[in-house]
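Lab notebook, bench 4. The sequencing result for the construct came back, and we need a structural model before the next group meeting so we can plan mutations. Quick request posted to the team channel:

Model the 3D structure of this chain.
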Amino acid sequence: MQNTVNSLTIGGLAKAAQVHVETIRYYQRRGLVAIPERPPGGIRRYGSADIDRLTFVKTAQRLGFSLDEIANLLRLEDGTHCQEASALAEDKLRNVREKINRLKKIETALQEMVDRCHVHEGDITCPLIASLHTGGRGCCD
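Done. Here's the predicted structure in token form:
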């Protein structure tokens, strides 16, 4: 790749970071990505630091962090706030584990409903539909 020290337009930055231009503009409005100065009569230019910032944001999003949480992480990125960053990650991990537990309960309940449908014979009422009407018995608590 060419030297990207302030040589990219916003379109080039979007391509290099594999995001849409509107995503960059949205992140700029949210304060996650800096808006470079526009030289008189010129266009704004971006560089490798901007690619790194976008990579940070997108990676954090893939890990489940919200944009507000990412903003907090970015405030801690100087490396001297590892305890605070760790606390944010531990909270996110706890949240993910809770979601996994809820999804496992949903999986079990759905599997039971599907199994009842497969053994269902003769009765007009579908066991799955009937179960939904009665609140799913223990599902999704």
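The CA atoms of residues 32 and 60 lie 12 Å apart.
Will bring this to the meeting.
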